[in-house]
Design a protein that fits this description.
The chain has 130 residues and is mostly helical. It is built from 5 helices and no strands. Helix 1 packs across helix 2 and helix 2 packs across helix 3. The longest helix has 46 residues.
């Protein structure tokens, strides 16, 4: 067995995911190769240190945050193509409609007032004629 083959088997060997013949071949290689043996021992010590640290507990609200993020992604992917553009146009029109409606109402009131003011003298002139 060559060193690069042995090094690729270190992790599966530590996990117990190698066959008996692979285990025997790797053991023989480690007995004869000091360089690979140092790398293997270093990897095994790292694995042991990591197991001593233990697992970190996930935050309690993690599942809620994940569901919320997924639902936002799904909702955004289901939007029509120009949805954001349509919303912006609607908002612009609505912002314009209030002043436009107020302006139109003011114009109608002023026009009505002027028509009433100008129409009264005409009716007074017509009443004098028999």
């Amino acid at each position: 067995m060559k060193c690069n083959q042995a090094e690729s088997m270190f992790s599966p060997y530590l996990d117990g995911a190698v066959t008996g013949t692979e285990m025997l071949a790797l053991t023989r290689h480690l007995d004869s190769c000091a360089h690979c043996q140092r790398k293997y021992v270093s990897l095994r010590q790292s694995q042991q240190l990591l197991t001593k640290v233990g697992r970190r507990k996930a935050p309690e609200d993690l599942s809620l945050k994940l569901r919320l993020a997924i639902s936002r992604e799904v909702a955004q992917s289901r939007r029509p193509r120009f949805h954001d553009f349509r919303i912006r146009v609607e908002n612009a029109i609505q912002a314009f409609m209030v002043p436009a409606t107020a302006g139109l109402a003011t114009a109608v009131v002023i026009f009505g007032f002027l028509m009433g003011f100008l129409a009264l003298p005409l009716q007074a002139d017509n009443s004098d004629v028999p």
